[in-house]
Amino acid sequence: MVIRRSSGLASFFALLALIVALLPANTAGAAGVVATVAGSFQSEVDCPGDWQPDCDLTLMSDPDGNGIYTYATGGLPIGVFEYKIALNQGWDVSYPVGNLTFSIANAN
């Protein structure tokens, strides 16, 4: 994954990939699982609002089928954002228990 936004964003996505890789094997590798990054940044990427696990614009993908889901975006403003991973476009299963944060320190 190539990120050119900022080191804060690169760290966010590296952490995000790690978190999803740590999902239980029976969940992350299951056929038909939909993983979404839900958080306080979603309105910045044209979702109807923040914390929307059903927003298709923040769907994660697992192109090689190895159970490691990724998501990348650009255009986020400078700021601190919270997020978590929601499965199957709802809050019934989400990781981690608490919210995580990432920050964008500068705009490119």
Taking pLDDT < 50 over at least 5 consecutive residues as the criterion, the unreliable ranges are 1-7, 25-29
What is the β-strand count? Answer: 3
Average pLDDT taken over every residue? 80
What portion of residues is helical?
10-25%
What gyration radius follows from the Cα positions, in whole Å? 13 Å
- SS field, number of helical segments: 2
Topology order in helix (H) and strand (E) letters: HHEEE
Strand content: 15-25%
The shape is globular
Query: Numbering strands along the chain, what is their spatial order in the largest sheet?
Result: 1-2-3
Head-to-tail CA distance between termini: 18 Å
| Major β-sheet profile | 3 strands, antiparallel
Class per helix and strand makeup:
alpha+beta
Give an account of the 3D structure:
The protein is α+β, with helices and mostly antiparallel strands. 18% of the residues lie in helices and 23% in strands. The protein is built from two helices and three strands; from the N terminus they run H-H-E-E-E. It has a three-stranded antiparallel sheet, with helices on one face. Strand 2 and strand 3 form a beta hairpin. The N terminus is likely disordered.
